[in-house]
Amino acid sequence: MARIGNSVYDDICPGDPTCSQFGFEGGGKPTPMMAKSMLYKMHQDGKNGVRVDPALFKLAYESRYGKVRIFKVLKVSKKSKDVRLRSSSSSSSFRVRPLLMSLVCAPF
User: Fold this and answer.
1) Which of 77, 12, 8, 65 is nearest to 39 (CA)?
2) Contact 24, 34 (CB under 8 A)
3) Region for 15 from its dihedrals, namely left if φ exceeds 0, alpha if ψ lies in -120 to 50, beta otherwise
């Protein structure tokens, strides 16, 4: 995920096009960047002491073998739900980026 994001926003993994900081070390231990990511925390929620913030996310579905997990996002602001504020122009994605990055990189 970080590698894909880095192809658009080169400040995610500066100077590292393969984003080697986002992965796993020997023995399956996550790198610090991976351990901080929302992706890892949602995948590992409830395992090895990893938790997502229960005030922000609720597990809505988990497949039989735990390969698929769907979380409900709690406390969604009315502003983010207002479709009139959304723009179809490509430049609108750049306005969302700081908030998105703060969510993706924030410790939960």
Assistant:
1) 12
2) yes
3) left
CA distance 104 to 108: 10
Q: What is the model's pTM?
A: 0.64
- Cβ-based neighbour number of residue 54 at 10 Å: 11
Looking at residue 11, its pLDDT comes to 85
> What percent of the chain is predicted at pLDDT more than 90?
25
Q: In the block, which residue shows the tokens 């929302």?
A: 38
Domain count, the chain: 1
CA 32 distance to own-chain centroid: 14
Cα 51 to Cα 58: distance, rounded to the nearest angstrom? 11
Domain that holds residue 70: 2-79+87-105
- Chain position carrying tokens 């998105």: 100
Alpha-carbon torsion angle 35, 9, 100, 2, nearest 10: -30
DSSP run (H or E) holding 8: helix 2-8
> pLDDT at position 63, please?
93
